[in-house]
Amino acid sequence: MTRTPGSIVPLIAAALSFAATNAAAQTITFANDMPGQPPKDFEFGVAGEGGPGRWQIVADKTAAGGKALAQLSTNTAANRFLVAIYSPAVFANGEITTRCKPVSGRVDQACGLIIRAADARNYYIARSNALESNVRFYRVRNGERQQLATAENVTTPSGQWHTLSLRAEGNRYTVSLNGKVLHATSDTTTGEPRPTEGRAGLWVKSDSVTHFERVEIGKMP
Predict the structure, then answer these.
(1) Looking at residue 218, what is its pLDDT?
(2) Is 122 helix (H, G, I), strand (E, B) or coil?
(3) Residue 197 has what pLDDT?
(4) pLDDT of amino acid 202
(5) For the chain, which terminus, N or C, has the lower number of CB atoms within 10 Å?
């Protein structure tokens, strides 16, 4: 596993912080939502080419409660970033976690989380990719990605559930997969001002068909 680029803080310290500062999380599930419809309290957007996504509740017998939120559009535009932003929660420091399952995608099979989102074109994002076997962290500014960290040779097979977490504390961003911290880094991009608060949500790229079983959002001081 490799980690590039960015200012990487010691992962042992990051893991201890990850465990010790868990805030009480708000959990969003989809078992009571109507299949074929988008969930309440989410806003949907796109940056790049290829048009909007199609986010809706689907039946999934492998998900808790038998339902999941899915992104179903299969437009293969490579630079197509689709988001589902949870509107009620706005915070500076906190964490978002999801249990997600990549289902299909010829160009991409992504499961992603965003934090400190101002809108569909400005946020921080952590994502796993079943086709590339990596987990990366980016800043998205005006719809353009700037990579800050990566963990390579990390498998997230399609058709299987994985738990992804992204935490923001000051200028430190920590990414965890299935309970293991993969990287913790600072924003070294030059674009100012850097986002210091915002909303959180879900992310996929290109033709990723991905299921999300639940979302947990916890605010911290």
Answers:
(1) 97
(2) strand
(3) 96
(4) 99
(5) C
Over residues 31-37, mean pLDDT: 97
Tokens 């290829």 belong to which residue? 50
Q: Where are the domains of the chain?
A: 7-220
Stated pTM of the model: 0.90
Q: Where are the beta strands (DSSP E) in 92-179?
A: 93-104, 110-119, 122-129, 134-141, 144-152, 162-169, 172-177
Side-chain-side CA neighbours of 200 within 13 Å: the count stands at 27
Looking up tokens 């409660």 gives: 65
pLDDT at 200 exceeding the cut of 90: yes
Q: What is each CA distance from 177 to 10, 37, 112, 152, in whole angstroms?
A: 17, 29, 11, 12
Q: Which stretches within the chain are classed as H helix?
A: 11-20
Alpha carbon separation from 64 to 71, 123, 154 (Å, rounded): 18, 29, 25
Q: State the Cα–Cα distance between residues 187 and 82, nearest whole angstrom.
A: 22
Q: What is the second-level CATH architecture of the domain 7-220?
A: Sandwich (2.60)
